[in-house]
Amino acid sequence: MKTPRLFLGATLLFWGWQTNMPIIGAVMAFIIEASIFLPWRWTFTAKDLNKAADICAILFMALLVYRFSQDASSQTLLDLLQQIPIPFFPLLACQYYGEAGGIDSSALFYAARQKRKKEPETPRKVVDIGLPFALACVLSASAANARTTFYMGFLVLSVWALWKTRPKRYRRSLWIPLILLAAGAGYAAQNGLHTLQGYVEQAFLDWYGDSLETKEDAYRTFTHLGDMGRLKLSHRIVMRILSKPGERVPALLRSAAYNSYFSGNWTARDADFYPAPRDNAKDLWFFGDGPDSSRETVISMFMKDGEGLLSLPAGTYEIQGLKSRTLERNHYGAVVVDFAPRLAVFNVRYGDGRDLLKPPGPEDMRIPVEIASLISSQVDSLPLEGETDLEKVRIIQEYFLDNFKYTLDLDGGGGRNAALARFLLNSKKGHCEFFAAATALFLRKAGIPARYATGFAVIEPGPDGQWLVRARHAHAWALAYVDGEWRDVDSTPSVWAEEEKRGESVFQGVFDAFSNLWWRMSLKRMQGHGTGRSLTDYLLWGLIPLAAFLVWRLFRKERVGKDKKSGEERFMPDFQGGDSEFYPIEEVLNAQGYFRRQGENLNQWALRLGKDVPGGIKVDALREIIHLHYRYRFDPAGLDENDRRRLAALAKEWLESYTRGMDVRKEKDHDQNFGNDLQP
């Protein structure tokens, strides 16, 4: 199918608009569409097109290596997808500025090249790559994720292409309503799928979450209440924290908060996320106005696949320097990023006593019926009568700190509620999840809205003024709503950090040294200087010998040598008959648009050319050349010296005759056109 006129230019403009590369898109569109108004064309042989395709492949590989040497994240993959039309544009330009009006299929596929090498007489198949290239542009534009504008542009381009290829037997009055119906259905389906995704995710969390062990997320956290054995935690460094000199680091970094308790697990009800406002000029994300006095800290963390929850100090109102395409926050303080670099380094501003969380609701006071009597009996025994909310928080916190012990040994059996009952009534020992859950439920019984929070504790100083946060520092605590603000209430005995450190390997120092080295290399690479830049430079310099090797491969088969007797340059063939003088004849005819058909041998082609070529050709002479060529190419004995000279002479004579005929036809056409212009 032929690409509609101006369609490819419009597609390139649309691609440039969607990917924020309008100038590049406009230049590429101009180059392609300008070919319509230019009278001249180049003659590209099959070898020329092979070289062009290989150059495009080299450009793509260079772009691939360069982008991933800068940042190996999911965002880089999407950025690379948006730039795919750029390295392959030269091949498209060859089609629009070549005489054939298409690309030899052997240039596109390595297997086709190998077949052509083994069977040079195989008819060439010229294909139009305009529409496939347009499709690639649309797919690249979709990676920009501009939903509304993309769909409208995609719709216009689709209708344009379908209109040009519609069956003529159908009436326009029928075709237009059908295409409008399909467009409306597509838009509705797009919005419907987006909405359905939200419903499915929530239903999955509500119905099936209890039976799965997943990572912590912003909607549900799975506790280890009721499990058996010893809780195993990793000693891997997951974050590095650095505050200004003289300022203390935040004691807790909150990842998420939850308000609904059921059977040992906590969920966040009505926890829809909304995009955080952004100031691109200052590279700033903000959640609200800051307090009169605030503190700052720098957080460095590796993001798996460039996405996930951030762990932030309470009262965070600004994040600066986070290179993320999207950043969303819910009313419980959970912050989710997507398309972030693999190593995220950002500055956080936060203030004490100011937490931009949703005010308490009925769910923040609810205690499940199955444990209500258990919680009531425990809280009623505490001296809370007549105390202020702040004093109640202190009494409940001290109750757990003074009467309970921390342990990683899990005594399971009987379900999660039974495990909570054993913790409160019998063993009086457990890990942080027991303390946080029990504290939140005690606070609710005491009339104080409470939530369950998860995150990390900052307790280990590191080198260069940093504080190291390991996976084993994952922590849980309660949030209490007192005097109009949410406060952290950590009732876990402080010995928990030492308890979890006991399982540390004797080689942990070595592991930390490698971790620190990798972090520094990643940081330098992200900042664009030092070790990181050198690594990138090494990768880019490594492309030079690779490119040289590929160029050598491209030109290796066109070796030119000197004939010892005549001193003339001669082509060094790689197969029998590869230097036959018939091949230049075939290339000239192909350049004029005369190609062999599928299954057509050379003699059949010659007979058809005698009818198709204006003014005719010397068919008999051409068939004699073909006869000698076949012998030279396939006869094991080849040609003797006399027949070899005869093939060369006949081919030279035929080409000269054909060229003179072309010149005569051009003069006649010119004279005829000139005469037509003189007629009144």
Automatic annotation (TrEMBL):
TM segment ranges: 20-40, 174-193, 538-555
Keyword flag Membrane: yes
Keyword annotations: Membrane, Transmembrane, Transmembrane helix
Keyword presence, Lipoprotein: no
One Pfam family recorded for the sequence: Transglut_core
Domain Transglutaminase-like: 424-493
Superkingdom of the organism of origin: Bacteria
Name assigned to this protein: Transglutaminase domain protein
